[in-house]
Amino acid sequence: MAAGRRRASRKRWSPFEREAREGRGPLIAGIDEVGRGPLAGPVVACAVIMPPETRAIAGVDDSKALTAAERVRLAAKIRERAIAIGLGAASVREIDRVNIYHATVLAMRRALGRLTSPPDHVLVDGKEIRSLAVPHTAIVGGDRRCYSIACASILAKVTRDRLMLALARRYPDYRWDRNVGYGTPEHWSRLFEHGSSPHHRQSFVKARQLTLEFDEGLPQQVLADAVTPTPVVVRLDADADDLSSDLPYLPEQP
């Protein structure tokens, strides 16, 4: 029953969006990111403007509260209705170079920059981001409290999952088809067995290796591979809803 009430409430626009429209204008962009925590792969952000005069899509919720099948189904509906969608990412190399927080902001700024219609205001999941460079309202728990942000959350998650599935075909040793880059026990086991790939976040792997004594009994070459950065550019198509079977790309931008 609780799940039913949660899904039913998501059929309405949130007070945050109604207030933003009244004070700023009708075009409100929700933005969210996916992939701060994994050991491998980029962080992906999505900004989306949903049409203000239409009813919210039933079932839209925080992407983490949905099954993979539900996310794919809802993502298709969101793309059909959206006024504008912008996708952006920051590569593993950027994450290692500037840290995950600043890389996330880069991904968000790129997503906003790819919107074909300028928003009247932006709603962001989490806390205020000074370096986002656009006026915005931050909403803690926004992906479960705000319709536009939830839509962005779903699109970002579906996009990143598809990217990791594509990478899994090239790097089957890490089972990214099952863990999408997150640090599951199986992922860690395979990482220490096979060494790191060009798509592992070396700063994440090194931090974990330094805080836990994983080096005992492990081959030295595995440790060297796990902590030595490998320069790589990961790119992803701006129109990422139709990823090819080959490696998806996203140009790094200043």
Task: Briefly characterize the structure.
With 254 residues, the chain is α/β, with parallel strands linked by helices.
3D structure, described in words:
By secondary structure, this protein is α/β, with parallel strands linked by helices. 44% of the residues lie in helices and 12% in strands. Strand 1 (28-34) and strand 2 form a beta hairpin. Helix 4 (92-98) crosses helix 5 (100-113). The model is unreliable at 1-11 and 210-254 (pLDDT under 50).
Task: Give the secondary structure arrangement, pairings included.
Blueprint: H1 2-9, H2 15-24, E1 28-34, E2 43-49, H3 68-81, E3 84-90, H4 92-98, H5 100-113, E4 121-125, E5 136-139, H6 142-145, H7 147-170, H8 176-179, H9 185-194, H10 202-211, H11 220-227
Parallel strand pairs: 1-4, 4-5
Antiparallel strand pairs: 1-2, 2-3
Helix pairs in contact: 3-7, 4-5
**Per the principal axes of the C-alpha atoms, what is the gross shape?**
globular
Low-confidence stretches: 1-11, 210-254
Rg is 19 Å
Largest sheet: 5 strands, mixed
Strand order, main sheet: write it out.
3-2-1-4-5
Proportion of β residues? Answer: 5-15%
Order of helices and strands: HHEEHEHHEEHHHHHH
What distance lies between the first and last C-alpha atoms, to the nearest angstrom? Answer: 48 Å
Share of helical residues: 40-55%
Summed up, the helix count is 11
- What is the number of beta strands? 5
Secondary-structure-derived class: alpha/beta
Mean pLDDT: 80
